[in-house]
Write a structure and sequence with these properties.
By secondary structure, this protein is α/β, with parallel strands linked by helices. The protein is 32% helix and 24% strand. It contains 13 helices and 23 strands. The strands form 7 sheets. It has a 4-stranded mixed beta sheet with strand order 3-4-2-14, with helices on one face. Strands 5-6-8-7 form a 4-stranded mixed beta sheet. The chain has a 4-stranded mixed beta sheet with strand order 9-10-12-11. The chain starts with 9 loop residues before the first helix and ends with a helix.
Length: 412
């Protein structure tokens, strides 16, 4: 039974770095993800004056509940959405300072407005240098009083996560009324991790109540990335092979592990144990209609294996995937059509007709998106000659993906 060593969760590593930086004391992170996104987050903390020690398997962060150690900094967020959304929020809690943030052209295109509007409503002096609601931006910090704020998190749950993480650093705590919310499991990750650092969030319907008081440093183990695991689980499903991912089991924080339930509905055999999850392909993949609002990062994975199903695969309620690293709905549709697959899309859905791709030796257009590369690598297990116009963009979350996936291909 091939066991695959999946690197640490990007989402958990980013949250852990924020929490560690804000905590009182030194936090040790075990098995954090080392990728372009997380290295960029750690580098941003260093630019803000935090001490971050990094070895291959552990990172240590010397927390500063009072905020950044420097009163002025320029921070480049690279392509990282968590970096670009969380670090300006962290800087806003400083008692004083001017902090300028910028990001890659790709990240500059991605929206920030619901978060920056909420921060302004809380009294934060925040200015966009070029386009309202986008990087670059400047935060002139003077601490955050706290209180009531309303937030639309219908584009990204990261907006809510950023405010939740900020709450204990405000003078009076926060009451966040959410008018719309996508990817709820990611918010549940945030709340569970805040609890591990000593803060209990209370939810009252659409209102999240965060007390003031700060975080406690701890030792925190980062679990494997469930979104990344989806490519390996899908590989088993489309080849009739078997894959086990240690470290992702019944107690996993990440909602994206729910992707295996989709594979089960399609005909794969799935076993979720206490410490690991196993998927075994049965030689059959059935068509399915599935709402992926809460696990939308795995939408491209399902789209990439959909042509091998016996019936249509329809993925619904994933409008937010249009404002990720690229428009993932259209990127998936474009590449499937390149392979000769019939696809239709709507504002928040994609439907893929059955029938193995008729084209081979196709170059997949990645749009610089790591998830498009990793998803269509799974398609390549059944379609010879697939290549990518930018295979290296996997460095964002999994620099060693091609080597690890190639090793799995040889064992399946």
């Amino acid at each position: 039974m091939p066991a695959v060593d999946i690197p640490g969760s990007k989402s958990i590593t980013a949250r852990a770095l924020f929490l560690a930086a804000a905590a009182d004391g030194v936090t040790t992170l075990l098995r954090p993800l080392r990728s372009d996104d997380t290295e960029g987050f750690a580098e941003g903390l260093v630019r803000l004056g935090y001490r971050v020690g990094r070895t291959p398997d552990t990172w240590q962060v010397d927390g500063r509940p009072q905020g950044p150690a420097v009163s002025e900094a320029d921070v480049y967020c690279r392509d990282g959405a968590t970096t670009a959304r969380f670090l300006p929020t962290l800087a806003a809690a400083a008692s004083h300072g001017t902090y300028r943030f910028d990001a890659s052209p790709q990240m500059r295109r991605r929206p920030l407005l619901p978060l920056t509007r909420a921060l302004r409503d809380l009294g934060v002096d925040l200015r966009h240098a070029q386009k309202e609601g986008h990087h670059p931006l400047t935060v002139t910090a003077a601490g955050v009083e706290g209180g009531d704020v309303t937030l639309d998190a219908g584009q990204s749950s990261q907006y809510l996560t950023a405010l939740l993480l900020l709450g204990p650093l405000t003078r009076n705590g926060l009451r966040i009324t959410v008018t719309d919310l996508v990817s709820v499991p990611y918010v549940e990750i945030t709340i569970a991790m805040m609890r591990a650092f000593g803060v209990e969030v209370r939810r009252e319907g659409d209102v999240f109540v965060v007390p003031p008081g700060g975080y406690r440093a701890t030792t925190y183990a980062v679990e494997p990335d469930a979104s990344t695991a989806s490519y390996f689980f899908a590989a088993a499903a489309v080849t009739g092979g078997e894959v086990t991912v240690p470290g992702l089991g019944e107690g996993a924080l990440q909602g994206d592990l729910g992707f295996v339930d989709v594979l089960r509905r399609m005909g794969a055999q799935v076993s979720v144990g206490a410490e690991s999850t196993t998927v075994r392909g049965t030689g059959e993949l059935r068509g399915v209609t599935v709402n992926m609002r809460d696990i939308s990062d795995t939408m491209p994975t399902l789209a990439a294996i959909a042509p091998f199903a016996s019936g249509p695969v329809r993925i619904e309620d994933v409008a937010n995937t249009r404002v990720k690293e690229c428009d993932r709905l259209e990127a998936c549709a474009d590449n499937l059509r390149r392979l000769g697959v019939a696809v239709t899309t709507g504002p928040d859905w994609i439907e893929i007709q059955p029938g193995a791709p008729v084209a081979s030796a196709v170059e997949i257009k990645t749009y610089g998106d790591h998830r498009i590369v990793m998803s269509f690598a799974v398609t390549g297990l059944r379609v010879p000659g697939i290549s990518f116009d930018d295979p290296g963009c996997v460095r964002k979350t999994f620099p060693g993906f091609h080597e690890e996936f190639g090793a799995l291909r040889a064992r399946l």
